Amino acid sequence: SYAKKVPATGKQAEQRAKAKKPEVKAQSNWRRKHEDFINAIRSAKQVQAHLAAGGKLSDLPPPPVSDTSDYIQCPHCGRKFNKGAADRHIPKCANMMHNKPNPRAPPKPKR
User: Fold this and answer.
1) pLDDT of residue 62
2) Would you state the pLDDT for residue 5?
3) Of 108, 100, 61, 59, which is closest to residue 78 (Cα–Cα)?
4) What is the pLDDT of residue 107?
5) Which of 58, 62, 53, 84 has the alpha carbon at shortest distance from 71?
6) What is the DSSP letter of 87?
7) Nearest 5°: phi and psi at 13?
8) Is the CB of residue 64 less than 8 Å from the CB of residue 39?
9) Within the chain, which residues score under 50 in pLDDT?
């Protein structure tokens, strides 16, 4: 009453091979982003406390720099966006006229 296991062939073998392959995902850097976010919040709280105590903004060190190496720069306006926002922004920005030079306008005089 025991049935022999026959090796799968054809479509069955392909389906099993696909099921066994793990999908390769991009490395998530959520921990680094989270730490950057926490540091930015702490810095902002220190600034608010310093200003509330009557201090000057110029007395404080500059805020921590956030890493934007994974952002995509818009070729039209130069702003940087994450992938999803860049996919929405860049096609719209290509049609905007405010960030293009006006060919009929005289050149601005240099000071």
Assistant:
1) 87
2) 64
3) 100
4) 72
5) 84
6) H
7) -65, -40
8) yes
9) none
Q: Which two tokens stand for residue 29?
A: 């850097």
Give bridge partners of residue 72 from the DSSP assignment. Answer: 81
Dump pLDDT digits (tens) for 55-74: 998 888 888 787 778 889 99
- Residue pair 30/2 in contact (Cβ under 8 Å)? The answer is no
Residues 6+ apart with CB under 8 A from 99: 76, 77, 93
How much is the pLDDT for 48?
Answer: 94
Strand-strand pairing, 80-81 and 72-73: antiparallel
Residue type, 94: A
Amino acid at 13: A
Residue corresponding to tokens 């190496």 = 69
Find all residues with CB under 8 Å of 93, minimum gap 6, and list them.
74, 76, 77, 99
